[in-house]
């Protein structure tokens, strides 16, 4: 973040105001953290009010698509039918499913059942069975703005052990969210997530994390949920990122499917659960944009 801008020049944020009357103090504050050795955000990931408004609209579609999945998901349905629900509803609302063709991904949504940690590919051969837990991960592009969130669904009679996993991961996200405020660190959130998972005897996936989002599908920062308070990137108003921990009942270790190169499984085949929300850092705390 080179600070070559003159005090009377227009601010980098596009407000049209002079730099000295806009983000100069903000940049000075960030510079202190940088000089102390902290990781600090680049201007490119700090969203303007106009961008936030566009991202919010994209998020509304993402939420509506997940609501539609929630109304229609049922035992006996194939994961391809979930993909159909997502692509139809997204199109109806004027959006584009972000996963489709993303780095070669073949479908419009990720459907991850039981021991599948994430990136499960919808298929007409995979049928939802009584007792399954499934994560449906929806991402939308609307007028060039990206949104991303996911929810868990319990199909029929789910065992108390799996139900608890699903509930605890939701709590992990809520506890992490409580830590999100400006001039604190991403690791404050990450540690809150990890502590709660560990306190319940679970483990958090290390290799796959969350991400900045909004102008691109995946932006900086990369977001860990096994991080430590006071570490990782400084949070400042205008940053948007996901809280999306993958929490396993057994080992944290995972592996990727050798055939499709996408599907991630737990190494011990024990269940895994994930919820994903999209959060904006505001002047005095946070706002949940998508869930
Ligand atoms: N939605 C996932 C996330 O939370 C990304 C999926 S990439 C895809 O980051 F290509 F598999 F869709
Ligand atoms: Co995500």
Shape: globular
Percent range of helical residues: 25-40%
Question: Strand percentage, roughly?
Answer: 15-25%
The assembly state of the depicted protein chains is single chain
Largest sheet: 4 strands, antiparallel
Which secondary-structure class do the elements indicate? alpha+beta
Ligand set = 2-amino-4-trifluoromethylsulfanyl-butyric acid, cobalt (II) ion
**Helix count?**
5
Number of strands: 15
Residue stretches low in confidence (pLDDT < 50, at least 5 long) are: none
Mean pLDDT: 97
Using the CA coordinates, give the radius of gyration.
20 Å
Distance between the termini: 31 Å
Order of helices and strands: HHHEEEEEHHEEEEEEEEEE
Structure notes:
The protein has five helices and 15 strands. It is globular. The protein is an alpha+beta fold and 291 residues long. 2-amino-4-trifluoromethylsulfanyl-butyric acid binds next to strand 4. Residues 148, 210-211, 242, 244, 276 line the site of cobalt (II) ion.
Concise summary:
With 291 residues, this protein is an alpha+beta fold. It has 5 helices and 15 strands. α2 (49-72) crosses α3 and α4 (160-178) packs antiparallel against α5 (186-199).
Question: What are the SSEs and their pairings?
Answer:
Elements: H1 24-35, H2 49-72, H3 79-92, E1 96-97, E2 110-113, E3 116-118, E4 133-142, E5 145-154, H4 160-178, H5 186-199, E6 203-204, E7 210-212, E8 219-223, E9 240-243, E10 246-248, E11 254-256, E12 264-266, E13 272-274, E14 277-281, E15 286-290
Antiparallel strand pairs: 1-4, 2-4, 3-12, 4-5, 6-10, 7-8, 9-14, 10-13, 11-12, 14-15
The structure holds 2-amino-4-trifluoromethylsulfanyl-butyric acid and cobalt (II) ion.
């Amino acid at each position: 973040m080179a600070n070559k801008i003159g005090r009377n020049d227009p601010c980098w944020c596009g407000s049209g105001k002079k730099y000295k009357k806009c983000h100069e103090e903000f940049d000075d504050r960030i510079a202190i953290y940088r000089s102390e050795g902290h990781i600090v955000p680049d201007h490119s990931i700090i969203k303007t009010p106009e961008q936030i408004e566009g991202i919010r609209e994209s998020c509304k579609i993402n939420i509506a698509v997940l609501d539609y999945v929630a109304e229609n998901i049922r035992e006996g349905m194939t994961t391809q039918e979930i993909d159909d629900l997502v692509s139809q509803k997204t199109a109806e609302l004027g959006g584009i499913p972000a996963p489709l063709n993303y780095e070669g991904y073949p479908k419009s949504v990720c459907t991850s059942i039981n021991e599948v940690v994430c990136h499960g590919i919808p298929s007409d051969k995979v049928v939802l069975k009584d007792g399954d837990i499934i994560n449906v991960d929806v991402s939308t592009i609307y007028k060039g703005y990206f949104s991303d969130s996911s929810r868990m669904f319990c199909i029929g009679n789910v065992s108390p052990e799996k139900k608890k996993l699903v509930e605890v991961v939701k709590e992990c996200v809520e506890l992490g969210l409580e830590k999100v405020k400006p001039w604190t660190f991403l690791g404050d959130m990450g540690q809150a997530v990890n502590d709660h998972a560990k306190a319940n005897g679970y483990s958090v996936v290390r290799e796959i994390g969350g991400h900045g989002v909004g102008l691109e599908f995946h932006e900086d920062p990369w977001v860990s949920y096994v991080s430590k308070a006071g570490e990782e990137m400084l949070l400042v108003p205008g940053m948007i990122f996901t809280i999306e921990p993958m929490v396993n009942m057994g080992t944290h270790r995972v592996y990727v499917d050798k055939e499709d190169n996408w599907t991630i499984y737990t190494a011990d085949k024990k269940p895994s659960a994930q919820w994903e929300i999209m959060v904006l850092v505001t002047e005095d705390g946070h706002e949940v944009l998508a869930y």
